[in-house]
């Protein structure tokens, strides 16, 4: 993992636990939290709500907004945990823009567990109908800390904090 990241991007397909872990990790580290879903256009949200996956063209302006957010947070602050699907390698390159202070954490969850989580989730635009398109588009990252997303949130937060040198005490080690 990147030493001393200023932005941690939690990535994975819908239902992998990015938001849940992101909120817990940000609270543990004393960092800001951002959910990439909050940066989608109204049209993209409506499309996903209909169960239709987004195209690269749909995601382009969203990725531009997120890349600017990452740049600002890395340069000015506050340090930030960003929950973002970041499904493809080129999306991750776009978000990081070659910055060494942006770290990626992949929440790897088996498809059957993802489907079960999405069936149980309410009030979220990305439902179970989007899972097949997300799984088809997903490119496993080679440059991310890979975690078993079926573990408990506290264990996952501790693993990420430990990887960036902010272990059990939460202080720099």
In short:
Helices cover 44% and strands 14% of the residues. With 173 residues, it is α/β, with parallel strands linked by helices. The longest helix is centred in the middle third of the chain and has 20 residues, at 56-75.
Biggest sheet layout: 5 strands, parallel
Q: Give the total of beta strands.
A: 5
Quickly count the helices: 7
Strand order of the largest sheet: 2-3-1-4-5
**Taking all residues together, what is the mean pLDDT?**
88
Distance between the termini: 15 Å
* Strand residue content: 5-15%
Which structural class best describes the helix and strand composition? alpha/beta
What sequence of helices (H) and strands (E) makes up the elements? EHEHHEHEHHEH
Gyration radius, in Å: 15 Å
Described by the principal axes of the CA atoms, the overall outline is: globular
Helix amount, in percent? 40-55%
Poorly predicted runs? 169-173
Structure description:
It is a single chain. It is built from 7 helices and 5 strands. 44% of the residues lie in helices and 14% in strands. Residues 169-173 have low confidence and may be disordered. The protein has a 5-stranded parallel β-sheet.
């Amino acid at each position: 993992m990147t030493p001393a990241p200023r932005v941690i991007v939690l990535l994975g397909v819908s239902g992998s636990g990015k938001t849940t872990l992101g909120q817990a990790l940000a609270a543990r580290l004393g960092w800001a939290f951002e959910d990439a879903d909050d940066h989608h256009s109204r049209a993209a949200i409506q499309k996903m709500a209909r169960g239709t996956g987004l195209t690269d063209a749909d995601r382009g302006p969203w990725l531009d907004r997120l890349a600017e957010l990452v740049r600002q947070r890395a340069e000015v602050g506050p340090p930030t945990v960003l929950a973002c699907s970041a499904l493809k390698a080129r999306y991750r390159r776009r978000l990081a823009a070659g910055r060494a202070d942006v770290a990626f954490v992949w929440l790897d969850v088996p498809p059957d567990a993802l489907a079960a989580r999405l069936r149980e989730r309410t009030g979220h635009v990305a439902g179970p109908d989007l899972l097949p398109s997300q799984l088809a588009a997903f490119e496993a990252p080679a440059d991310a800390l890979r975690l078993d997303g079926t573990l408990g949130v506290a264990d996952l937060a501790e693993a990420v904090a430990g990887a960036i040198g902010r272990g059990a005490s939460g202080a720099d080690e």
